[in-house]
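During the reporting period the student researcher (J.K.) took over the structure-prediction task from the postdoctoral fellow and processed the backlog of single-chain submissions. One of the processed entries is reproduced below for the supervisory committee.
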Amino acid sequence: MRVVAGEYGGRPLKSLAGKTTRPTTDKVKGSIFNMLGQYFEGGRVLDLFAGSGGLSIEAVSRGCDQAVLIEKDRSAQAVIQENITMTKESGKFELMKTTAEQAIPRLSGQFDLLFLDPPYAKEQIVANLETLQARDLLADQALAVCETDKSVELPESIGQLQQIKQKTYGISKITIYERQ
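J.K. obtained the following structure tokens:
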């Protein structure tokens, strides 16, 4: 795994050994950012199930200002910390060592880009996105990128979020919502 493009482009990323996380492949990561638009002009990122932190690091590499990464697994937290150190800009990243459900009430401000790749996809994605909206944590036109197994069917809309793109890559499906 590596950072695909931007300021940190080409730098290697560590990933977690074993089956506790499912790292997004470079091909899928590149495709996600092609769907979103290659680069960003600022904005805040929230990664609710950060794994190795690769998606958030990619977003900051491509121009986002700051990323908040949430991860409960201790081994994954260590990998995220190493990957953040690799950027040499650790001030742009905040790692919250807890579950998404425990972290959301502690969040403040608004986020422009969200990544959700939870272990129990549909129920968790819908519940998390509803809670984030109820707490007014999504900026206008915020984008939510949901990665699931290809068999998971997410709703067309979740509160103010409307599904705008969906694409399947092998066993993974990427669904993107935009706040209307």
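The committee noted the following: Residues 2 and 12 are 4 Å apart (CA to CA).
J.K. will present the remaining backlog at the next meeting.
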